[in-house]
Every structure is written in C-alpha cells, then in structure tokens.
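Q: Given only this backbone (428 positions), what sequence would you predict?
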C-alpha cells in the first residue's frame, strides 16, 4: 500500500500533471485536494496534448478512480464542460468522484475576483479570475454553497435567499452595476446538480475503504509551495494550502496514511502573476528559456516570468512538505546554454541569508548569490529517454546532483520532455 503526494516545489507549473500521470500508472485512486480550475496541468500521450484544470490527471489512465476532494473549490459549469470535452476525445469519465463536501464556485465569485483585483492596486496577485479567492473566503466565513446543497433544494434556496442579496449590496456599494437573481442561480445550480449526481460521494469514507483494501493512492497537488496561503509569498499567493499536509485535510484521509511526498522541481524557476522574484531573468537568457520551454500560462495564456533555480526557495519547500523524493523536470529546456546558474543564498544588508524572510517586501533588496555551472548541449531527447539517466550529459548530471546534495533529498526522476515516455528513473 502506497500513498504518494505530488507537490509543486516552486510557483506552480513545474510539470505536476506530467509527473502525476507517470505515477498514476501504478495508482488506483488519483485525488485532487485543493485549488480549483486556476490549475492547468498538461499531459502529453498518444501524440495528443491534454490540458486539465479541475479533473484529476488520473482520469486519462483507463480504469482509475479520479477523485475531487472536499478541499477543492469546484466550478460546476467548468467541470461539466471539461468532462464533455474529454468524452468527445474518447476518454471514459465514469471513474470520476466528486466530494459531497466540496465548496462550489458561484457566478458572483468570479465577478468578485475581478473586482478585488481592480481595487487592490499593487497588492493584487494577478489572479486567474476564476473566483478561487472569493470562494475560499466564503467557505471560511461559512456562507459557502457545497455540493451536498444541490441535493436539498429547500436548503439551497434558503441559503441563496440570504447570500445573494448580500452580494448584490456589496457590488452596489462599489458602484458596480451587477445584480444576481436568486431564482436564476437556483435553477441553474439544481440542473448542474442533476448532471453531476452520479459522481457525488463521501470521499473520506471511499478512501478509507480503499486504504483498507490495500489500494494505492496518489494525491495531485495544484499550484506550488510558494503560492501557499500560509507558506508562500503572501499576499502574492493563491487562497489554499498547497503543501503536502493539506492532502489529508482536503480529502478526509488521516495524515498518518500519507507515505511519501514527491517534490516536483522545474530545472529553473517560472512564475505567472505578480510579486517578488529574486532570480528573475529579464534579458536574452530569460527570453531563450521562455520560448524554448513554451512558458505561457496553461490557464490564462500569460507569458510566464522565468529565472534561475533558487535553492533558498527549494530548501524551504523541502522543509515544509517533508519531501522524500524529487522529480526534476524541463532539464532539456536548459540545453544549449553555455552556462547555467543556481542561487545558493541571498545577501541582505551585507549578511548571507539562507532562509526566506517573512517580510517579503524586503526580498527586493535581497541579492542572489550564484554558483555557475557549465551548460550542456541539446540532445536527441527521445533517444536519451530510451538510454536512461546515466546517458545524460555529464554537466547536466553534475547540476542535478548538486541540487539533491544541497537539499538532502534524492532525485528519483528526471523529465527531459513533455511526453509520457520522456521520464528517466534515477537510481541511488
Ligand atoms: P503543472 O501545472 O505543474 O502541471 O505544469 P503545466 O502543465 O502548467 O506546465 C508545464 C509545461 O511543461 C507543460 O507544457 C508540460 O507539457 C511541459 N513539460 C513538463 N515536463 C517537461 C519537460 O521535462 N520538458 C519540457 N520541455 N516540457 C515539459
Ligand atoms: P498549476 O496547478 C501557476 C497564481 C496566479 C496568481 C496567484 C493567485 O497549474 O501549477 P488565483 O487565481 O489562484 O487566486 O491566483 O496564483 N496561480 C498559479 N500560477 N500555476 C498555477 O496552477 C496557478 N494557480 C494560481 O497566477 O499569481
Ligand atoms: Mg500549470
């Protein structure tokens, strides 16, 4: 029995979808536990590209259960559309399970997200405008609507009768010409409920049974550690806990059932949205990496900011997540550069700094200290995938082994391209 948690070690888009798909082959249940359709996970197989936002990546592996846990915020319209599209592309979606306790993204949440971003000025995080923050806020304030409410029309109506006028007053106060009608939302959400009914279950009970039967569970994190609402660069974060411990809270599985945590590390750093980024590359090298790595947001299409790998960030991630293994992706993207750099510490007011400050505004005055490595040439990465880790260029292996030695966590997989087959196993 194995319960593996996959976590992004940086600011999202590390290749979690690809690594989840790889591990999914030997898992029975693939489970999302936080975030919503702000995520964009890309999986390439059978010469096709799939971009999943809400559905766990395991749905692409036949016969697996793909579970959306209580910690996910679910936009039912998006979920139905995503399922329809997958069905059209020949994917069997009957393995999907939706928690009866997940909170729902409502039409007003998306508008509130856009409104808050407009009002927040420099404090804006550059959100995906999918309604994630406002939905989690309402959950914490205890006036969220949950999946189970869709099957109790009376209770749903009564909740909407209280919440919708509050939202209308809020928008009016900000001078926004927006009014929601209870009856319209009620009818619309009841009909989503009918469409989704066959997927709805008590996920905690389901996974407890699965564990007792010796099934293998795989938890698919969304976003990244430095977007975590507690441990990330607050306030330039998302609104959920993206770290491994939330795999338990976000599904109703007891924490002692989690057996290993894989940190997915992109061989450099990328970020969409606003906020400090000490190792950001703004010149030609940054442009080279962005174009070569197709660094454009999966969800919003925005160009991603890119920079050198940052060990201050990664040590923090290894600590707060209890990483047991690392999977390093996009090693091919750095191919062709004469030299590559890794930030090993910062200097601040004349001192060396090895940990992130809580006052993240001061990060702009932290200067990265770099160790420079000789680069490696581009290769035939398909051929390399067949040959194995030991055939990687020596300089690439030196770069990777420096990372695992510093973090004291073994690299067990190296990804050298977006396709399913382009994942190398690294022994010892
Ligand atoms: P996620 O959000 O962590 O699942 O990552 P995304 O799918 O948003 O972004 C990662 C991008 O890199 C996708 O386009 C993947 O197809 C691609 N990718 C993943 N691993 C590799 C790799 O090793 N090399 C290259 N070149 N691309 C990769
Ligand atoms: P995956 O799972 C990268 C970023 C947004 C913004 C901040 C808050 O594909 O790695 P939100 O809409 O969540 O309120 O936006 O978080 N963000 C992501 N960045 N990858 C993601 O997901 C992200 N999900 C949210 O750009 O800065
Ligand atoms: Mg992504």
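A: Predicted residues:
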């Amino acid at each position: 029995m194995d319960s593996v948690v996959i976590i992004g070690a940086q600011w999202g888009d590390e290749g979690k979808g690809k690594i989840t798909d790889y591990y999914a082959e030997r898992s029975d249940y693939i489970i999302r536990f936080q975030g919503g359709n702000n995520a964009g996970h890309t999986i390439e197989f059978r010469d096709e590209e799939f971009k999943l936002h809400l559905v766990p990546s395991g749905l692409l592996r036949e016969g697996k259960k793909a579970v959306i846990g209580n910690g996910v915020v679910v936009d039912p319209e998006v979920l139905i559309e995503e399922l329809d599209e997958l069905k059209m592309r020949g994917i069997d979606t009957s393995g999907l399970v939706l928690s009866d306790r997940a909170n729902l993204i409502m039409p007003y949440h998306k508008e509130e997200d856009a409104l808050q971003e407009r009002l927040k000025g420099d404090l804006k995080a550059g959100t995906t405008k999918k309604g994630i923050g406002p939905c989690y806020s309402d959950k914490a304030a205890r006036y969220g609507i949950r999946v189970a409410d869709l099957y109790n029309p009376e209770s749903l109506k009564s909740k909407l009768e209280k919440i919708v006028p509050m939202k209308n007053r809020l928008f009016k106060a900000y001078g926004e010409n927006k009014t929601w009608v209870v009856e319209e939302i009620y009818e619309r959400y009841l009909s989503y409920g009918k469409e989704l009914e066959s997927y709805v279950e008590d996920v905690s009970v389901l996974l407890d049974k699965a564990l007792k039967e010796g099934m293998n569970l795989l938890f698919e994190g969304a976003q990244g550690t430095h977007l975590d609402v507690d441990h990330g660069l607050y306030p330039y974060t998302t609104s959920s806990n993206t770290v491994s411990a939330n795999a338990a809270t976000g599904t109703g599985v007891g924490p002692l059932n989690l057996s290993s945590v894989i940190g997915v590390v992109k061989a450099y750093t990328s970020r969409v949205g606003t906020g400090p980024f000490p190792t950001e590359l703004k010149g030609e090298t940054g442009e080279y990496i962005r174009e070569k790595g197709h660094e454009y947001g999966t969800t919003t299409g925005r160009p991603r900011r890119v920079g050198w790998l940052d060990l201050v960030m990664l040590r923090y991630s290894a600590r707060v997540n209890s990483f047991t293994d690392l999977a390093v992706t996009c090693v091919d993207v750095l191919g062709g550069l004469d030299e590559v750099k890794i930030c090993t510490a910062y200097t601040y007011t004349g001192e060396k700094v090895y940990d992130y400050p809580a006052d993240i505004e001061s990060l702009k005055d932290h200067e990265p200290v770099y160790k420079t490595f000789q680069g490696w040439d581009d290769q035939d990465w398909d051929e390399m995938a067949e040959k194995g880790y030991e055939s990687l260029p020596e300089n690439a292996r030196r770069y990777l082994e420096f990372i695992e030695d510093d973090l004291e966590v073994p690299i067990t997989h190296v990804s050298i391209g977006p396709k399913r087959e382009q994942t190398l196993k690294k022994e010892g």
